[in-house]
Amino acid sequence: MAKKSSPKRSPASAEEAELERGLPALERIASLLAIIATKGMETDAAAVRLDAIGMTGREIGTVLGVSADYAKGAKFRAKNGKPKKKAS
After folding, report:
1. CB within 8 A of 63, min separation 6: which ones?
2. What DSSP character marks residue 57?
3. How far, CA to CA in Å, does 28 sit from each of 36, 61, 76?
4. Which residues neighbour 13 within 8 Å (Cβ) at sequence distance 6 or greater?
5. In this structure, what are the phi and psi dihedrals at residue 32, rounded to the nearest 5 degrees?
6. How far is it, in rounded angstroms, from Cα 46 to Cα 40?
7. Which of 87, 40, 43 is nearest to 63 (CA)?
8. pLDDT tens track of the chain, all 88 residues?
9. Comparing C-alpha atoms, which of 8, 66, 63 is closest to residue 30?
10. Exposure of 76 by Cβ count < 10 A (0-12 exposed, 13-18 middle, 19+ buried)?
């Protein structure tokens, strides 16, 4: 019995290859715009603003130089207020 040949993958179209090469450029542009939009803001306020426009925690962390968890914490603090200090 002869072995069946597996179907060969067609080469990626030029348009798909161009899209793949363009994504890093678009990400750099988005990061640059995010930096401009948050220039002069405190880190918490900037994290909340970037979250509001739809950036992920990882993206916010990359732009602001903080962790993704910090971005989540900033959103929580903005929503619930800063925790009150205990009276001693």
Report:
1. 31, 34, 35, 38, 50, 55
2. H
3. 12, 14, 27
4. none
5. -60, -45
6. 9
7. 43
8. 666 666 666 556 666 666 666 668 888 888 889 989 899 999 999 999 999 988 999 999 999 999 999 999 999 999 888 765 666 5
9. 63
10. exposed
